[in-house]
Structures are given as structure tokens and as C-alpha cells.
Specification:
Elements (H helix, E strand, L loop, with lengths): L2 H26 L2 H17 L1 H5 L4 H18 L22 H13 L2 H12 L4 H8 L3 H22 L5 H7 L1
Helix pairs in contact: 1-2, 1-4, 1-6, 2-4, 4-7, 5-8, 6-7, 6-8, 7-8
């Protein structure tokens, strides 16, 4: 690769790496698998950088690669094999509510792959509806319907865990 193209690639990756890792983690809910997905995504991006750099929406292009890598990982049977006799203990950052994060990750895991991809890209990746559709290679209407269904499922799962009392509900109880 030419030095100027390689410099552009390094600048792009340096600026986006934390966001890409967060998106991958939200897709798969496993830090180690997220690392693998990001690495595979960045490798594919590097190989195709000349073409990718000319894309109208580079972030959408990269998210599309990432979602495809994630789906490829899900299709492989060996990815479900645990290499050890127990799951390792992971410490949680002190500034986050572990129970809420765990509830959110569990709720995200319960979504079908398409709904999960749309919700993660839209709300955790901060992509527009159009950019999400482009990243996933589907229609805007499909993104809207998948998003609506996914959010309804998440609300149901999270509201069951933390019921919300509205002003109307408070009047009904008195």
C-alpha cells in the first residue's frame, strides 16, 4: 500500500477503534469475540482500503463489514466451544452499574440477529436509519420495522425487570 493510503488507514482506525470495539461487543456480548470481530473487520478494511476510502459513507462500509464478520462467527460451530473447564471471572468497572449492564446485554442477546444488529448500529453506533440500512444492505423500511420490533422486545424485557410507575398508574393505585 502507498504510504499516503496507509497513513489515511491508520488515522481512520485510530479515531474509530474504541467505537468499533464497543459496537462489536454490543453485537456479540463477549469481549474476546468482539476483539476477533474488530480484528477481522480491520484486516478486511486494510486489504480493501483503496476501494473503501472512495466510499461515500466509510463508516457505513465498515459497519457492514463488521456485521458480516459477526454473522460469519455466529454460523461457525467451533465459536461456541469453551476452551477450559469454567468461564473466567471478569471484573466490572467501578463506575458502572453491573446489574443494569448485565440486564441490557441479556436483553440484547434475546433479540434475533437482525433486530440486534439494527438496534446496536442505530442506538449504540449512532448511525442514522439510512446509514444503518446501507451498512446492513437492506431497505430503510426494514431497518424501521426491525428497530421497532427490537425496541419493543427490549422494553418488555427491561420493564419486566424494572417496572415503571406512571402518573396514571399512581392515581389508579390510590
Amino acid at each position: 500500500m502507498r504510504p499516503d493510503l496507509e497513513r489515511e488507514y491508520v488515522e481512520y482506525v485510530t479515531a474509530r477503534l474504541p467505537r468499533l470495539h464497543r459496537t462489536a461487543y454490543l453485537l456479540c456480548a463477549d469481549a474476546f469475540q468482539a476483539d476477533d470481530i474488530v480484528q477481522a473487520t480491520l484486516t478486511a478494511l486494510y486489504v480493501n482500503w483503496k476501494r473503501a476510502a472512495d466510499a461515500d459513507n466509510l463508516d457505513g462500509y465498515v459497519h457492514r463489514i463488521m456485521v458480516r464478520r459477526y454473522l460469519d462467527e455466529r454460523r461457525r460451530g467451533w465459536s461456541k466451544v469453551l476452551l477450559g473447564d469454567r468461564v473466567p471471572e471478569l471484573s466490572a468497572p467501578a463506575d458502572h452499574d453491573v446489574e443494569e449492564r448485565d440486564a441490557l446485554v441479556t436483553a440484547l442477546r434475546s433479540l434475533p440477529k437482525g433486530q440486534r444488529a439494527v438496534v446496536v448500529l442505530r442506538f449504540f453506533g449512532d448511525l442514522s436509519i439510512e446509514a444503518t440500512a446501507k451498512a446492513l444492505g437492506c431497505s430503510v423500511g426494514n431497518v424501521k420495522s426491525q428497530c421497532s420490533r427490537g425496541l419493543a422486545t427490549l422494553r418488555g424485557a427491561l420493564d419486566a425487570r424494572h417496572p415503571v410507575t406512571t402518573a396514571q398508574g399512581a392515581r389508579d393505585q390510590s
